[in-house]
Structure formats: C-alpha cells, structure tokens
Amino acid sequence: MDEQTEELRDLFVETTGEETVTEDQSEDRGDLGDAVSAEEAEARVRELVGRMRERYEFQSGLDDGDLVRVVTGFHAGEGDAEIADALETDEGTVALARLDLHLVREGDREAPLSMDDLRELIVADVPLEERVDRLDADAEAVERYSRVIEAERRATRANHRFTDEFAELLTDADLRDSHAADARESGLEEAAEDIETNTQL
C-alpha cells in the first residue's frame, strides 16, 4: 500500500469508524483492535521497524532487534540511559534511534533556542551552517534540535501511523499481559475492564 492509499484509509477509518476497506489493505496494516499477546506485539513491532527501515534512512546504526528494544523500552517508560544500559551502548545512540523511529520525548523539545524559528529555517531548506549563523546558536545544539524537528516532520508526513501503531500494540499488550493481575489484586479490576471496553475499536 502506498502512502496516499494509507492516508485515504486512515481518513476512512476516522470518518466511518469501520476498519475494513478491502481485504488487501486491511491485511497489510492489520486490525490493531484485535487482542495480541506480548510476543505477538513484539513481532509486529519488528515488522513495523522493518517497514520504517525500508522507507527512511536510519542514523543510529542499531540493528532491528535493538530498535525493537528501543521501542518497547520507550513505551515502558524507560529513559534513554536505561535503554542504553540494556543495549550496552550510549545515550546518544539511543536518542538517535528514537528519532529514527519517530519517538520524540517532551524533553527533546526543551531547547536553548527558538524551536519555531529553527523549524521555519528547516522548512525553507536552509543549510545547517546557515541555521547556526541565523540563530546565533551553538552548532551542536542546532544540529541536535534540527534532528528532533526533522523526526517530527517525518512523523507528521506519515500521519503518525508508526508511532500510533507502536503505542497501540505495546500499550494493549502491556495492560493485558503485565498489569492485569496487579489490577485484580489491588481491587481495580472493574475499572480496568471499563477502560478496556471503552478503548476497543
């Protein structure tokens, strides 16, 4: 399915509330409303990572298995340092990997320069060195926050489909496989079931 077809499908789903468009298109993206185990979710995350690698030029140098760990760690609430320790790499590599995968933290936007001005320069296709001059900012900072904005732009052009699918797969799997027992033991079973019912597609 090409990008335009996927965008039309997303619009159809939002407008009608129906998941089925054609058998081929539905099969390509999958019905994320279906219950999946943690193992199935991880396998589908790996498929999404592979699709992203085919579509984008990744910068981090991590392999697909490590990138899956970045995605799962991000959605488990781990910081870059924790993920880096698990992968025996450095935080900078993990941050690059997150941005490759369109996973932007709120802290990534906390810049010592105007992100709005930087975004305008990027949209205008102004070279990096000229961005540094125009913003009168540290070159390393401009490069770092340019990567954040570029990741956000890629995610927007993709209608956030990859980040949305990561979130839905891993949130659903984590709630079912990791937290359901704890919720029952703490007397929150009924509330959890209500939330699950309300969030089904």
From TrEMBL:
Coiled-coil segments: none
Organism: Halolamina pelagica
Extent of Acidic residues compositional bias: 16-26, 188-201
Top-level taxon of the source organism: Archaea
Region: Disordered, residue numbers: 1-40, 177-201
Protein name according to UniProt: Conditioned medium-induced protein 4
Biased composition (Basic and acidic residues): 1-12, 177-187
